[in-house]
Write a structure and sequence with these properties.
10 strands; five-stranded mixed β-sheet; globular; mainly beta
């Protein structure tokens, strides 16, 4: 396990969609969490009137700008990249992101990897196909 931190954050639908489709590759955030390059952002779509929608995505912080000459004091601009781990059949993994809390933290062995719309893994003994971004290799 590394020293990077996983941050679960709310994101409004219009910004969520832009990150989802790749047109928005950054986040502007108040730096109340001591963000750092390498951290993982779990962005959960959230509507003020309804709460969480159940949609989410994972991105890794690739760059951080906190220079007060360019960014309002106390805020940061975080560069985002897809967070796809290097996972292969036979690896032991655990589920680090799931809308269904009964799956969070479960471990499994990767049986196969498929590439339909996104890279997914089928785990032995765990129902469903899992996006690689929701998995982490157990050391």
């Amino acid at each position: 396990m590394n020293n990077q931190v996983k941050h679960e954050l709310k994101i409004l639908p219009e910004y969520f969609q832009a990150v989802w489709n790749g047109t928005k590759t950054f986040e502007v955030r108040k730096n109340d969490r001591n963000y750092a390059v390498g951290d993982t952002l779990v962005l959960k779509e959230w509507k003020p009137e309804d709460g969480y929608t159940g949609s989410g995505l994972v991105r890794r912080v690739s760059y951080m700008l906190d220079d007060s000459e360019y960014v309002k004091e106390g805020f940061v601009i975080l560069g985002l990249v897809d967070s796809v781990p290097n996972i292969k059949p036979g690896d032991k993994v655990w589920i680090i992101d799931s809308a269904d809390s009964s799956f969070f933290g479960k471990e499994g062995i990767v049986e196969s990897i498929s590439n339909t719309d996104i890279l997914r893994a089928r785990l032995k003994g765990v129902v469903g196909d899992w996006p690689l971004t929701s998995l982490e290799v157990v050391e």
